[in-house]
Write a structure and sequence with these properties.
alpha/beta, Rossmann fold, two-stranded antiparallel ribbon
Length: about 220
């Protein structure tokens, strides 16, 4: 993670939005389109790894109250300058607990983050606590088949000489996380996009729902 931390605390942050647009980064539009039917104006949305706020902008325009968490003060400063977030917190996503109360958020989104985590347990564990029952979580992961190699090392685009490890997740991996942390699947979508060190890669966007605590409410939409 050292190379990743160096990049997201470097001058690269100033060009982050331009580089995302140039790369035709689809994750924010895809997750918003999939989650839109489940959100309402005034709902509180937590953006996990909010960065400069690209994944929250459409939700903000739809009237949601944006809260964000990220480890990089420079990325948070970029987001703060857009004035779309009610609250931004600096915190390492690999270290629970996150600085939010139980049942304090209506929904969550996470894009451009999961490929950096070998184990997504901290994120799902904390969202299982933070989200209100019935809240949705929209996220994107690099996709792989069960049994395939889950990690590759590639050259960093922004830190010459450094290597970045990219992690993928199979459908079985994701469903194991959902079952373990109180979520049920709602819908998913496979798509191709450019990837670090590769021309294109398979990604999957998921929308999942936090289960209600009532024992008769454990059904998937």
């Amino acid at each position: 993670m050292t190379a990743v931390r160096n990049v997201f605390n470097s001058d690269h942050v100033a060009d982050y939005d331009k580089n995302a647009e140039k790369a035709n980064w689809l994750d924010p539009a895809i997750t918003f389109g999939m989650a839109y039917q489940f959100v309402q104006p005034g709902d509180r949305l937590l953006d996990i790894g909010i960065g400069t706020g690209l994944s929250s902008q459409l939700f903000y325009k739809a009237g949601l109250e944006i809260h964000g968490i990220d480890f990089s003060p420079k990325m948070l400063a970029g987001c703060r300058s857009k004035q779309i977030a009610k609250d931004l917190k600096e915190h390492d996503l690999s270290i629970p607990p996150y600085p939010y109360g139980t049942d304090s958020m209506d929904h969550a989104v996470c894009t451009g983050v999961t490929h950096l985590f070998k184990d997504l347990t901290p994120i799902f564990q904390e969202l299982g606590r933070i989200l209100k029952p019935g809240g949705v979580f929209a996220f994107v992961v690099p996709d792989c088949q069960t049994g395939e190699v889950r990690e590759i090392q590639v050259n960093s685009r922004h830190s010459p000489g450094d290597k970045v490890t990219i992690f993928s997740y199979s459908r079985q991996d994701i469903h194991t996380l959902l079952d373990s942390h109180g979520f049920v699947p709602v819908c998913d979508l496979m798509f191709e996009a450019s990837a670090i060190g590769r021309r294109t890669a398979q990604y999957k966007a998921y929308v999942v729902k936090k289960q209600n605590r009532h024992p008769n409410s454990r059904t998937c939409l």
